[in-house]
Specification:
Blueprint lengths: L2 H47 L5 H6 L11 H7 L4 E6 L4 E4 L8 H9 L4 E7 L2 E9 L6 E9 L1 H53 L13 H50 L5 H30 L8 E4 H15 L6 E5 L3 E4 L1 H18 L6 E6 L2 E5 L32 H11 L3 E6 L5 E6 L12
Helix pairs in contact: 1-5, 5-6, 6-7, 8-9, 9-10
Length: 460
């Protein structure tokens, strides 16, 4: 069942229930009111018979106070057209002005012992009557009087009202279903359009499908979110395609060099030892560069370095370990000095170590001995400065772009991914990274992260 059909059915059910409730209350109230009016009329007639000497009662039962057994029509006229039936003090019928009214055990008990009057609806020859049985205690021969009024006309009115309520309920339910369908059609139109757009995306793979105009209601918000999602997916797919193209371009150079060196070794078996060692050294360097490039590509493609949880990291300790590793890697040709103030940040230790390592490695690559690489750590900020040639002003906006390498840097090893990983790590940790040229030469990189709050004081 579609959403429109469900909403139409719900509206029909709600409208029908509301109409049924109102109609039911109306019918019950009307029925009780009509019945109360008839009962009130019978009660009023009964009061007219309640006289101390019993003359009114004897007249109603077809006899005067002196002579009993007069004609029935005379008794009927005296009580306004209400049918009368008299019971003796044993409960037997001694007089009736019209059709015989039913007498049950309760009526007999009222005639014999008295009590409170009772009123009920009975059927005589298919005709409904409201009958009130009134006990009589001040005459010896009559024990109770039954007063009856024809209730058929009232029941016909109530039956007509019942059918009218039925048709009203059906009509209101139909109108409710129609209104629900129209409302559902208008309300779900943006959803249907979004569904069509999603199905087109799923079937064709295109992300540039038309999204219906958005309003300020919930479907409008959904449409805007859907359009934003498609735009983000399109941008992500473009970035992935660009990454693949750039990666293929960057991988082609070391692979070509590896293939050339391997073919040289295979073709010339008797190479001079110095030449052979140079080729092997070149193979080792290219292999290492290729491994580094693959690792960086994996990190960029997955937007994460590993699955380790975030924790409080002592940033000064991370920098100390990175500096020592760079010293060993360069054979201590490039000196790395560290001026650190103890501070902590919240992050992934390996991710942060890789980002800081990329900054220091980049600085060491462009430093010339004996000038050191200077690293300063304070309040969640790592500043790395080299004393190399600096970065041309035209290249500063592109330093953190994937695979970007300035003409001056293309002669040095690297893939152009290290600084983009630093930028990605900073953003992932709600931080930032920037670069400027120092006034006296060299580049200054500033890697800033939110400092972790100090631990609570120990409990006394």
């Amino acid at each position: 069942m579609t959403l429109r059909a469900k909403m139409a059915l719900a509206m029909a059910v709600l409208a029908g229930l509301a109409a049924l409730l109102v109609g039911g209350v109306t019918f019950v109230a009307t029925s009780q009111r009509v019945q109360a009016e008839v009962d009130s009329s019978l009660t009023s007639q009964a009061r007219q018979l309640d006289d101390p000497d019993g003359n009114a009662l004897l007249s109603a039962c077809g006899a005067s106070p002196v002579q009993r057994g007069g004609p029935r029509s005379e008794g009927l006229e005296r009580i306004g057209g209400v049918a009368v039936q008299c019971l003796d003090n044993q409960g037997a019928v001694v007089y009736t002005s019209s059709a015989d009214l039913p007498v049950d055990s309760t009526d007999i008990v009222l005639a014999q012992k008295g009590g409170r009057s009772r009123t009920r609806t009975v059927s005589v020859d298919g005709v409904a009557y409201r009958v009130t049985t009134v006990p009589v205690t001040h005459t010896g021969s009559v024990g109770a009087v039954q007063l009856a009024r024809n209730f058929s006309e009232s029941e016909r009115v109530l039956d007509a009202l019942r059918w009218l309520i039925f048709f009203v309920v059906v009509s209101v339910s139909a109108l409710g279903a129609m209104a629900g369908w129209l409302i559902a059609r208008k309300a779900t139109k943006p959803l249907v359009q979004l569904t069509d757009a999603a199905e087109e995306v799923a079937s064709s793979g295109r992300l540039d499908v038309d999204v219906p105009p958005a309003g300020n209601d919930e479907p409008g918000r959904l449409a805007r979110s859907f359009a934003t999602m498609l735009a983000a997916l399109g941008q992500s797919r473009d970035q992935q395609q660009q990454l693949v193209q750039d990666a293929g371009h960057e991988l082609r150079t070391p692979l070509t060099s590896l293939r050339t060196n391997v073919e040289t070794l295979r073709r010339y078996e008797n190479l001079p030892e110095p030449t052979r060692q140079a080729i092997l050294s070149d193979l080792e360097i290219e292999t290492r560069e290729l491994g580094t490039l693959v690792d960086e590509l994996v990190q960029l493609a997955t937007d994460t370095y590993d699955d380790e949880p975030e924790q409080i990291v002592a940033l000064d300790h991370v920098v100390d370990r990175v500096a020592e590793r760079v010293r060993r890697r360069t054979g201590r040709i490039v000196e790395v000095t560290v001026a650190a103030t103890p501070c902590s940040v919240v992050g992934k230790p390996r991710d942060l170590a890789r980002a800081v390592g990329n900054l220091v490695d980049n600085a060491a690559k462009f430093s010339e001995a004996p000038t050191p690489v200077e690293v300063t750590v304070d309040r969640g900020t790592v500043v790395v400065r080299d004393h190399g040639p600096g970065i041309p002003e035209a290249d500063l906006p592109h330093v953190f772009t994937r695979f970007y390498r300035s003409p001056e840097a293309r002669s040095k090893p690297g893939s152009g991914l290290g600084l983009s990983i630093v930028d990605q790590t900073a953003r992932a940790h709600e931080g930032s990274v920037s670069v400027v040229n120092a006034a006296d030469g060299g580049a200054v990189f500033t890697f800033t992260l939110p400092e972790a709050p100090p631990p609570p004081p120990p409990l006394a």
